[in-house]
Design brief:
This protein is mainly alpha-helical and 279 residues long. Among the domains are: 14-104, no CATH class; 206-274, no CATH class. It has twelve helices and five strands. The chain has helices at residues 14-19, 47-61, 71-86, 95-104, 106-120, 126-135, 144-153, 157-170, 201-208, 210-220, 223-232, 262-274, and strands at residues 27-30, 36-39, 234-237, 242-243, 256-259. 26% of the residues are buried. Residues 1-43 are annotated as: Disordered.
Length: 279
Amino acid sequence: MFDIPRGKGGQRKNSRRKDKGESTPAKTVVGSGNRSRPKKAKSSFDTGKIVDEVLDQAYIYLGLSELDIDEKIAKSVVREIVEAVVSGYSSRPSPDSVLKRIQRNRELVNEYIAGKILESIEKPGPLTLEFLIANGGRAVIKDVSRLYKLAVEYNKPELIMTLQSLWNKYGPKEMLKCPRCGFNGISPEYSCVVCGATVSEKYIRDSTGFSDKFNTYLRTASVAELREVLQLGFILVDSLRVYAPKSPEARGRVLYPIRLTRAEINLIIEEINSRDVRI
């Protein structure tokens, strides 16, 4: 359910809340088992009526009237937002008070709108796409591939740049840069989660500086780890270092599997032999 914060820290005095038509702080009621629970303030007005009164104003105020989106869908989202705001008052708020509270939480509201639009519309139009990318924040991350492809289709390079900034801020970290779209979106499966491009193992090796990291690993890994890598025939790498496939340090990271070449296998064997350990 959508929730609107009631103000900074919830420390306003009751008199100020009453002047602005805001709800008073919830009282605490002690029930059985010595557990306390908040007591909800009862509304002394018809919430549905004030929602209907504010709906059209909020629809325009939020900029949804200017988008290429079905009005019924847009107003359905706006109604949820207005209902959430109005439910936070214990006395009848003015339309202006409702709109001001929406404005104070504009970032949260916009992210919610973006998420609902993306759930409802498979292919947003150019104007709606611009709204989603400009205002959606972290809500657009799960649909980054769809939005990227639409921005390409609509020839909107500026939206691609904004989407890339959002991806860098809110998206998964440690992924390698895609040579096609420029997003840090190459997955451990060697494909880009944004544009769908695939890359070669050579690209992963070059991008991570695998050769130097592998040589460092040879000198520092235990014999047990080296034997394990020999048995499995591959190793893991990221932009920082090389990891044995079963290493605890590899858990929870974005790592790329690298198949060992014959030359690399020979280097591992030589390293083990140099430590006077039979294999």
